[in-house]
Each structure stands twice: as structure tokens, then as C-alpha cells.
Design a protein that fits this description.
It contains no helices and 28 strands. By secondary structure, it is mainly beta.
Amino acid sequence: MRPLRHTAWGAVLAAAAVIAPAAPASAVTTDLGTLPGGTQSSATGVNSAGLTVGWARLSANATYATRWDTQGAISRLAAPQGSTGSEALAVNDAGVIVGDATGSNGQEPVRWNADGTVTRLAAPPGGKGGVAQAVSGNGFVAGLTYDATSGLRRAARWNPDGSATALPSLPGDRQAWALGVNSSGVAVGVSLSSGLRLRPVRWNPDGTAQELPVLPGGTAGRANGLNDNGEIVGMSGVSTAMGPRQLVPVRWKADGTVSALPALGGDDGGEATAVSGLGVVVGESTKGGLNPRAVRWSSDGVATDLGVPAGGGNACVPASVNVSGTTVGECGVNDPQDATLFHAVRWN
């Protein structure tokens, strides 16, 4: 399972986006590679020390949670007993990693402690299994569980002590999942209607759900992450039967005010995926919804093209940024034998 915030949703119309000149590419970009004998990898989280986490694939049916140390050396994380695959999706500054493992019981949310030991997270009442998508600095975890009866996705939050709470969908919606959480226990994500319309949502510490506004003319959105100051980032778009279109990267202030972030020069949209504690945002910039370029926005909204690895690459999607601006994600690999391959990448 790929991280839910990285699902591709299609074309973006130029009329919906703000276009601004971008600063020239300036990041040092490193292909982090994959496990020995592996085919591809993805970096999904990075902490302030530079510890990077993600996953690597050894075959079509074998994906394993991984970590890269500050020097870029890759290693597998211990898997829960009985699991056949796993993914690491986020890491905090204490070295706590969260993600999921797959086994005979399906997907289960897991937490790797700083000492490397792994723990299954119990589903909230009425739930079964799930995915731990994000972890705050003080140990709140957010993600999803599956309704034990219907199998539908339910947003979930785990307290630092491991106790779990199911978070509600927005009124009238059938499913929801959380993609980010901060140290106040505020979670963000999406709520999904029976008509497959995505709505960006913020869950308050008491568990109540609040719909976030989208840009004028928009009818869909997704909140991908937030910081401890309450800044939220994601996308605004237009709902269609095939999923959101006309995607625009956006930032919400703590008071819920939404504004567009500029696409890179020549592009017409994209999506913001993560925000650091200092308000630096990362995400993708696209033209017509295709060929994503990695972009980093300063706290005042200046866009920088992060570039591709020196050895070549394409279709780059950042997933996480730390307080120093170090960014991680994935880029397509220029492999003439398989155009679908991608590798974990770090931008410094």
C-alpha cells in the first residue's frame, strides 16, 4: 500500500492555479537507493537529525519498512511476528517510527520504538487493523482503521499511551482517514462521501471534526499535514466522478484561512504534502496533472525547484521536510526496461 496522501488524481487546469517565477534549483539531491537486490524504494519521513524512513520493495509481493541513517545507509526495520510485509510512513525527533505491517489479519498499524522494537497498535473500538500514517513529536499517532463490520475506512488517533480513538467523518460522509497529527493532538486528513467527493478535515483534540475551506470555485480538497503551530497544507480542487481535478497546492493558517501556493514556472498546479515547524512547505508542481516536479516553498511562499538526482530521474514527489529544510520523497528512475520504477530521494 502506497501512503494515502500520494494517490495520483489526474489533470490540473491552468485557470485554477497561481503561477509565479520559481527560484532556481539549489538543493543537493541524492538517490538513496534500495535494499540489496531490490527494485524500488520510497522515503516517507525525516526527522531533525536526518534519520529517514520509508520502504523498499524486493519483489512485487515483498515490501519492507526501512530506515536510512544520516549517512544514507539503508537497513530493514524489524517486522512484527507473522507479518509478510511492512512500511514505515513517519518518524519523529525521538526516533519513534510508525507505519503498517501486513499478515494473515490484513494491514495492522505499528510503531517502532527508538530502540528498534516494534509494537502493534490496537484498533479503536469497532475497528480492525489499519495504518499509522503520522506521528507527532510527543507521540500522538494518526491514521486509519477499518470498520469491523463494513470494512470502510475510519480515521483514527492513538494517544501517546497507545489508547485509540475513532475520529468521525464529516456529516453525510461514509469514510475518512487522517494523514497528519501535531503535539496538541490535532489531526488532519480527508472525509469521503458516498459520491467519492474528498473534503479536507481537521479533527480537534476533543475529536470533533471541522471541514476546512477550499479555494473559491473548488469543491474538493485534502489536508496532508500540519505543524505544531497549526499550519496545515494540502490541495484544493474540483470533484469529479474520477476523483479531484484542477488540483492547487494550498496552505491553511491556524484560523482556517486558505491560500494558494504558486506552481513552478511553466506548471499550472500541484499539491503540498508536508510543512515543517518553521512553515517551510514541500510538495509537487505539475502541468496538466503530469510530470510532477519536487518543490519547496519558503514560509513566505517563494517556490524553489528542488531538481532531480545527479544520475537522472523524473516525476519527483516529496513526502516530508524537517526543520532544517531537508526533504525526502521519491523520484522515477530512468530505467529503459521499466518506466514505473522509483527510488527514495533526499534533497538537502
